[in-house]
Amino acid sequence: MTLSIPDRNLALELIRVTETAAIAAAPWVGRGEKNLADLAAVDAMRQMINTVDMNGVVVIGEGEKDQAPMLHNGELVGNKLGPNCDVAVDPIDGTSLTANGMNGAISVIALAPRGTMFKPDSSFYMNKIVTGPEASKVIDLRASTAENIAAVAHAKKLPINDITVVVLNRPRHDELISQIRKAGARIRLIQDGDVAAAIETARPDTGIDILMGIGGSPEGVITAAAMICLGGAIQGQLFVDGKPSGPILQTHDLINSEDVFVAVTGITDGELVRGVRYTPYGAISHSIVMRGKSKTVREIKTEHYLR
């Protein structure tokens, strides 16, 4: 089968999609209503995504995970005038962060040629390790926590006590956290939003070197798209009923193409991007758009006039 390659002009169209979702979610920041925030972002993203020049099918969506009525797996999106694409969406990565007014919530979309995205189906959880380009070839999910930390430190020419590992703050990670501290590395605990945290491992000046632990498998696929763009790496293994299931998946097992796009817009402030800011005339958003084939990364600040 011949793959239909997305056009480079899709990059800025995708930013419009995540900007729209982030601005729709922003009024709900700190209001304690994560479901209403998610609904606003999903509805806004769905309307804008259908203006994009593509014939897309949602591979990673909201429906099965969050019982959302829109942007579900298998839904056709785009205006049907462009290339055939697999689409991964997360209108809010960090719904609890948004509801509680905490840092790190983003809106994100990833695009790849049709048939290249891994489908986790009903497997919602994945054990992951993610790092940036300097150490992309040395991580190994089969190795111990201490071995991976030492390998990353050596690759980045840093002492182990300067390595920072980001981990979701969950009871299931108590043993992992103990192992990281025993190895001598530092930990940054996050409450939610492991896509943004994973991307931070591959961006300069974030202070994050590795992401470890069990998070969402859909988020793992989106992370793979970002790592292709940034030169980093992810390894993951699905978790089913609390147990590892299936083979260890490499970056290109999760997305088997270099021609991927990722767009991210901040909802609340974070190390990766700033959140939405209101102004007398509307709002300001901050975004990143990446392309895997060219390894281009653009940071975009947009002023929105809102009536």
Shape: globular
Low-confidence stretches: none
Mean pLDDT: 93
Number of helices: 9
Largest sheet geometry: 8 strands, mixed
Q: Write down the Rg.
A: 18 Å
N-to-C CA distance: 47 Å
What does this structure look like?
With 307 residues, the protein is α+β, with helices and mostly antiparallel strands. It is built from nine helices and 14 strands. The strands form two sheets. Strands 1, 2, 3, 4, 11, 12, 13 and 14 form an eight-stranded mixed sheet that branches. A six-stranded mixed sheet has the order 7-6-8-5-9-10, with helices on both faces. The radius of gyration is 18 Å and the shape is globular. The termini are far apart.
Key attributes of the depicted protein:
307 residues; alpha+beta; eight-stranded mixed beta sheet; six-stranded mixed beta sheet; 14 strands
